[in-house]
Amino acid sequence: MEMELLRYISIKNGLGLSYISKDERLSNILSQIWDIMGEKVILKGGTALNRVYLSKINASRFSEDIDLDYISEEPLDVKIKEIKKFVNEIKGFNIKGPRILHRTLRFDCYYNNELDKKDVVRLEFYLNKSPFREARIELVKSPFIDSYPTMFKVYSLEDLIAKKLIAFYNRGEGKDIYDLFFSFQMDIDREKLMDTLNINIEFYNIVDFFKGLMRQINLAKQEAWYIGNSTNHFIPKSLRPNWVELIETLEGDLSKRFKEI
User: Fold this and answer.
1) Of 155, 183, 214, which marks where a domain is finished?
2) With contact defined as beta carbons under 8 Å apart, do 193 and 178 qualify?
3) Same structural domain for residues 108 and 175?
4) Neighbour-count burial for 196-212, b at 16+ CB within 10 Å, e otherwise
5) Which residues span the domain enclosing 210?
6) How far are the Cα atoms of 47, 58, 246 from residue 229, in angstroms, in the given order?
7) Are residues 121 and 24 in the same domain?
């Protein structure tokens, strides 16, 4: 990307130059993966939520990693060999790995950005079969740049929210809080959400799910300043929230929706 255009997009969105640069690289990798792997992988996580769903209500933040579920009935060693073969076909990056971390195969895709600094897009494949209700092929594109739009198999909004709730239960990060708050502003099928959420709770052997959510909310309220300070740089300047108000609103929303779980 030309530096002048990079600066323009950075100023327009209130995001750092290196983030806009990485956003284009991430789009490039997604486009190549679709061409190479097609429906063998399903996009999930913050990148799926923000590029496919939150973009519809102009609430997308920058998401810097690519998280994928690899769909295969082959033994683990065969799946690893297949993924390595596919990833080696990605062009334009210095790819290191894989490393196996907690049932996940991780690759680091290095490049030099327009600022002549080394940066990396992290690419992770989940190797176990993950529970879900629905996945479909959608247009996936950056909310900030027009380069490399691509089709991709993506989980439904309800499945992504369920997985994001599990993530929040486990770690309580600011990005999870932001994604959940704005996801709940969308048109959600409650029956589908509760169905896939219960499947995920059972799959991960979670007990006292609602209590766990409230525990994370209470911690977040105590650390609202830190959460905002560590998360705002991923969020366009015009969308950066009052974190105390956002966390309290999310607390009420979670209580209303999931108190009986």
Assistant:
1) 155
2) no
3) no
4) bbebbbeeeeeeebeeb
5) 156-261
6) 21, 22, 14
7) yes
**Mean per-residue pLDDT for 52-79?**
96
In this structure, the answer to whether residues 185 and 93 fall within a common structural domain is: no
- Number of domains forming the structure of the chain: 2
Nearest of 208, 216, 227 to residue 250 by alpha carbon: 216
Q: Is 80 exceeded by the pLDDT of residue 70?
A: yes
| Statement: the pTM of the whole predicted model exceeds 0.85 | yes
Q: 261: how many CB neighbours lie within 10 A of its CB?
A: 17
Region 6-15: mean pLDDT is 98
Q: Decide: 33 and 90 in contact? Cβ < 8 Å.
A: yes
> Over the chain, what HEC string results?
CCHHHHHHHHHHHCCCHHHHHHHHHHHHHHHHHHHHHHHHEEEEHHHHHHHHHHHHHCCCCCCCEEEEEECCCCCHHHHHHHHHHHHCCCCCCEEEEEEEECCEEEEEEEEECCCCCEEEEEEEEECCCCCCCCEEEEEECCCCCCCCCEEEEEECHHHHHHHHHHHHHHHCCHHHHHHHHHHCCCCCCHHHHHHHHHHHHHHCCCCCHHHHHHHHHHHHHHCHHHHHHHHHHHCCHHHCCCHHHHHHHHHHHHHHHHCCC
Q: Is the pLDDT of residue 129 over 90?
A: no
Last residue of a domain, one of 126, 155, 184: 155
102: pLDDT strictly greater than 90: no
Spatial distance between the Cα atoms of 194 and 91, rounded to a whole number of angstroms: 41
